[in-house]
Structures are given as structure tokens and as C-alpha cells.
Amino acid sequence: MPPESVQMLLPFPRAPNFDPRDFVPAASNQAALAWLDVDWPDRRLALWGPGGSGKSHLLHVWAERVGARVLAGSSLRDLDGMPETGGLALDDADTVVAEPLLLHLLNTARDRGLCVLLSGHTAPSRWHVRLPDLSSRLRAITAAEIRPPSDDLLAVLLARLLADRQLSVAQPVQDWLLTQIDRTPDALRQAVARLDDLSLTAGKPITRSLAAKLIRSEEFSLLAGGVSGLSRGDPSS
Prior knowledge:
The longest helix is centred in the last third of the chain and has 18 residues, at 185-202. Helix content is 38%, strand content 10%. The protein folds into two domains: 24-145, Rossmann fold (3-Layer(aba) Sandwich); 151-216, Helicase, Ruva Protein, domain 3. The protein has helices spanning 30-35, 55-66, 99-112, 132-139, 151-164, 171-180, 185-202, 208-216, and strands at residues 44-48, 69-72, 87-91, 115-120, 142-145. It starts with 29 loop residues before the first helix and ends in a 21-residue tail after the last helix. The protein is of the alpha/beta class. It contains eight helices and five strands; from the N terminus they run αβαββαβαβαααα. The model is unreliable at 1-13, 222-229 and 232-237 (pLDDT under 50).
């Protein structure tokens, strides 16, 4: 009997999809959405919530709408990318390691009259900082929470994640998956990515049997990693 053919996987990275049409309005993000349509106190707003809740997506939606520059907190090393006018969106702002740099960014944005949108795992007032001036600036920022998604929203997200990868999965299998994995957007993304890899490797469609094989495997871990940067003191966020 010939051995089963195994497909070699190439490490093509998948770019995040921040298309405004793909953002799913729900009760969990209603308050944050409402804030994007009004003027912000001191021209500053922070979106906060658990990983995968849609903070980055919503931040990019706003940036595209107003033509704001988007910077990543995890890779921020200087202020060369700051615009002179308009708006600035700093994604994962709580991962900025250098406190003086973040303080300088906020002060420069104020001097230039920029609208600033931040995102983080917790509200800026809860970020663990040592600089008194930075702590004061962060406490003054209006914060809009994005709450954990409802069961209905998770079902919609799972269907969209599968569709993004052009994966055909029967509805009963999708319903079963939602009972077996961590009920968070990040967990769904990880599960769909691994199911896609497993399906390609095995050369088989995604069935409940194939999904169960993945769920039972030791390598399948949906535990979120620690958050580095300013929120690292509150891993439960």
C-alpha cells in the first residue's frame, strides 16, 4: 500500500485583514464604535480590551477614515514616523518599552494638535509606568472598553476566519469547535490556522474527526502568552 502523500507547507505570512467592511458591530464593541463618531477630550482616545477583541481592527478603521498615520507600539523606536498634522494611531501602545519615548510622543502630538488613538490590553490609567508625567498624561486619556465577544459574535468570527482561508467546514463541525476551544477571538484564530495547516498536510477536508485529532494533540495550546511592555503587570487583561 503506497504511503499517504504529505503536502509540504511553505511559511507564507498572512497579513491581518483590517477592511472596514469586515468589522462586525456588536454589543461588546458598541461603546467604542460610538466614540469614533464624536470629538474626544483633549483629542485623545484609547481602545482597550482582551487580545483579539477587535482593537487593532477598529483602530485601523478609524485611521483609514481620517487619514491618520498608524504606528506599532512594539516596534516604536523614535518619532520619525509621526505626522505633522492630522491624526496618529498607535496600536498596542502598552507595548512601548521606553517610557520617555511614549511621553515625548504624547507631548509632540499635543504640540502639533494631532488627534491620537491608542490601543492596549488595559485602560491607560492602569498601565504600569514610573514617570510621573507619563502617568498623569495616561490617566487623563478617555478610554473605551471593548468587552469580550458574545457567543453569537464568536460564531460569526469563526465563520469569517474559515472563509478568509477558503475553508469549507460543515456548520455542525463549527458548532462543535466552539464548545471545544477557548471562547476568545485569539483562540479561534489559532485554531483555524492550525486546522488549515493540518488539512493541507493530511490532504483531507476539515471534519470533526480531523478537528478532534488536533484538539487532542499535545502541541495544541491556546494559552495566551504574557503581554510585554506597559501592561505586563496585569497578565489577566
